[in-house]
């Protein structure tokens, strides 16, 4: 029918069972017992899977990366945060599993336990931190003390607080595990990390990696939430299926998903900044606290991402003290542009503060402190690139210095002069976004009938990866086909499979499509080299272009290898690069209610040479997500008990709305 099939759309195998998480509602407590209220749902419970069911040789792990550390699948014997899994109800249907999990009666004890650490301030007071390896730690730039001594003005104490954000993917966490012979298991899961999921499931079960097959056809929305957080559902289903020797699947309800998700990292930044009377910045020091939750997840990467975004301005000198705080909260994870949006927000708050002190137009201060190529190289080192690739100043000037912008700014000023209860503002904000290329595999196989099967390490998460890979395959093999456009219909991109193509890495960081396409292009180059002599020989005999089907049939008869694998690795001198962009927004606020209306936004983003402009336009959705984080979304928690246990989709700021 053309419908996209997601994990929960896969028909249930014979004798399939269903799971649901039983999670703690206390941030730090002993789990003494778990029972159920008597009901129809509890009568349909097959069993409850707990830490006691982990096989000999297995580990209590639900997610993690060996280089950073792991997070437990079960809170056993102590629950370390509200929302931590303490058991998995297995029932005959998903509905009964949900109902039984909600009817669980958990007995807690806080005897001999310290009070939970819930906030950045608590963590700093108790020296509760997650270590950041030196290889991931950002480095200071210049001499802060000297920069402050050169300043005409100083702000010695400013503060910015930033909240968390939930993913709001359409598809919640889901998995289907099917046991196989010889202690093997296949897990269909919605994940951005097939390889890491394979490793974690194997570590949990105490079996070799080659016994675990992870398949991910597509993800119904990721934004980072189907990374480390996606492995817990896979592990839960795998453990239950491994023990019961029956297929087990689960699909989290939205509330459970929100409670367990973690989300974006809350931050608290205190800063001191020096600047001259003309607005030139001379030095900045930031004390940054990051609430990472209970486990490392990918949090040790967040300081570097945050500082990389903060460096979009030439601060003169930049110093910082970053504390990655370990708290009794669900571990925070990467959310679209992790650290980058926080760093950019902090930078803009400081710029606004400086402009306010000077009584200057904010855009004047911004423009004055945009990097030259020299300062860009100082702040970003190898990722800065050459002068022709540095487009931020041109982008900013195109927006902020245009006659239209000046006209709109004057109109805003006139409106504010005539309006008492509603005010407008207009501003232009630049960004830098540093990305890292990663080694990526690709495999292209041409079948006997001329159809083409392609595999890549990346996962389709709605970003159009498979569309671009198909296009690159047709482009890469186009030299062999007189009508290359028709090759596109012959290409099929196969689902991600951890045993079929290894070292797939992870999907994220805004470079998966280009890396996967380059790996596919290299594989196509190998095939072209093999097939070109046959093509030339056939053309010499016939004196006419050779149809694709004829070429492949002849190559097959000649025993030519029609499959090629490539493992693309980036040039060491070009592992990182920077993307540039800017946006102008005109906003109206109601000073009585706090209601905010964005009247217009204009965005300019230098994406280089787009692989597919129609697909890439969809990335404008990032603007909507950022708006939600800044204006509308706020996680709620009960500090006394359910730290993070109650999450809502939106905390509306307008009391009259």
TrEMBL record:
SMART domains for the chain: Ald_Xan_dh_C (SM01008)
InterPro entries linked: Ald_Oxase/Xan_DH_a/b (IPR000674), Ald_Oxase/Xan_DH_a/b_sf (IPR036856), Ald_Oxase/xanthine_DH-like (IPR016208), AldOxase/xan_DH_MoCoBD1 (IPR008274), AldOxase/xan_DH_MoCoBD2 (IPR046867), AldOxase/xan_DH_Mopterin-bd_sf (IPR037165)
One GO MF term attached to the UniProt entry: iron ion binding
Domain spans labelled Aldehyde oxidase/xanthine dehydrogenase a/b hammerhead: 1-112
One Pfam assignment: MoCoBD_1
Family in the record: Belongs to the xanthine dehydrogenase family.
Protein name: Aldehyde oxidase/xanthine dehydrogenase a/b hammerhead domain-containing protein
Taxonomic source organism: Aegilops tauschii subsp. strangulata
């Amino acid at each position: 029918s053309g419908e996209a099939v997601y994990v929960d759309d896969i028909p249930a195998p014979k004798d399939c069972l269903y799971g649901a998480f039983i999670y703690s509602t206390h941030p730090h407590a002993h789990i003494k017992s778990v029972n159920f209220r008597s009901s129809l749902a509890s009568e349909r419970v097959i069993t409850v899977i707990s830490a006691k069911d982990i096989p000999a040789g297995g580990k209590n792990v639900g997610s993690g990366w060996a280089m950073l550390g792991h997070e437990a699948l079960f809170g056993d014997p102590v629950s370390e945060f509200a929302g931590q899994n303490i058991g998995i109800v297995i029932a005959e249907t998903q509905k009964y599993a949900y109902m039984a999990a909600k009817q669980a009666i958990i007995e807690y004890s806080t005897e001999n336990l310290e009070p939970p650490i819930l906030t950045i301030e608590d963590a700093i007071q108790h020296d509760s931190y997650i270590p950041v390896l030196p290889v991931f730690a950002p480095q200071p730039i210049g001499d802060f003390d000297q920069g402050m001594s050169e300043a005409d003005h100083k702000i010695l104490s400013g503060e910015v607080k930033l909240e968390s954000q939930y993913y709001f993917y359409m598809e919640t966490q889901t998995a289907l595990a099917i046991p196989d012979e010889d202690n093997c298991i296949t897990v269909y899961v919605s994940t951005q990390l097939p390889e890491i999921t394979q490793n974690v499931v194997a570590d949990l079960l105490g079996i070799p990696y080659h016994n675990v097959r992870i398949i991910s056809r597509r993800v119904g929305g990721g934004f980072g939430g189907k990374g480390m957080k996606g492995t817990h559902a896979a592990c839960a289903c795998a453990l239950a299926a491994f023990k019961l020797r029956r297929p087990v699947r689960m699909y989290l309800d939205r509330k459970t998903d929100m409670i367990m998700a973690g989300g974006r990292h809350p931050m608290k930044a205190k800063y001191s900044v020096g600047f001259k009377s003309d607005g030139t910045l001379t030095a900045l020091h930031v004390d940054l606290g990051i609430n990472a939750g209970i486990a490392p997840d990918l949090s040790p990467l967040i300081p570097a991402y945050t500082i990389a975004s903060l460096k979009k301005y030439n601060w003169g000198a930049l110093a910082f003290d970053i504390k990655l705080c370990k708290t009794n909260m669900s571990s925070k994870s990467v959310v679209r542009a992790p650290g980058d949006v926080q760093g950019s927000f902090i930078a803009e708050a400081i710029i606004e503060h400086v402009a306010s002190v000077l009584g200057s137009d904010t855009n004047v201060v911004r423009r004055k402190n945009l990097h030259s190529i020299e300062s860009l190289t100082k702040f970003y080192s190898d990722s800065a690139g050459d002068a022709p690739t540095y487009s931020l100043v041109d982008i900013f000037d195109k927006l902020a210095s245009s006659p239209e912008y000046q006209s709109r700014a004057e109109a805003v000023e006139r409106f504010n002069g005539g309006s008492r209860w509603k005010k407008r503002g207009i501003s232009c904000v630049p960004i830098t976004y540093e990305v890292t290329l990663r080694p990526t595999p690709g495999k292209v196989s041409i079948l006997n009938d001329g159809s083409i099967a392609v595999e890549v390490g990346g996962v389709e998460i709605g970003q159009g990866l498979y569309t671009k890979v198909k296009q690159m395959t047709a482009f890469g093999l186009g030299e062999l086909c007189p009508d290359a456009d028709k090759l596109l219909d012959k290409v099929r991109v196969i689902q991600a499979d951890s045993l079929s193509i290894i070292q797939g890495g992870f999907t994220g960081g805004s470079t998966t499509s280009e890396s996967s396409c380059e790996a596919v292009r290299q594989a196509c180059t190998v095939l072209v080299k093999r097939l070109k002599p046959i093509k030339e020989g056939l053309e010499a005999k016939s004196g006419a272009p050779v149809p694709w089907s004829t070429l492949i049939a002849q190559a097959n008869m000649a025993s030519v290898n029609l499959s090629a694998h490539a493992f693309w690795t980036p040039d060491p001198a070009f592992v990182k690069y920077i993307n540039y962009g800017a946006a102008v927004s005109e906003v109206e606020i109601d000073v009585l209610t706090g209601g905010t209306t964005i009247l217009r936004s204009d965005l300019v983003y230098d994406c280089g040479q787009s692989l597919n402009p129609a697909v890439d336009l969809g990335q404008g959705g990032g603007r909507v997500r950022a708006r939600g984080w800044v204006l509308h979304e706020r996680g709620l928690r009960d500090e006394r008990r359910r730290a993070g246990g109650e999450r809502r989709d939106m905390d509306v700021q307008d009391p009259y709305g």
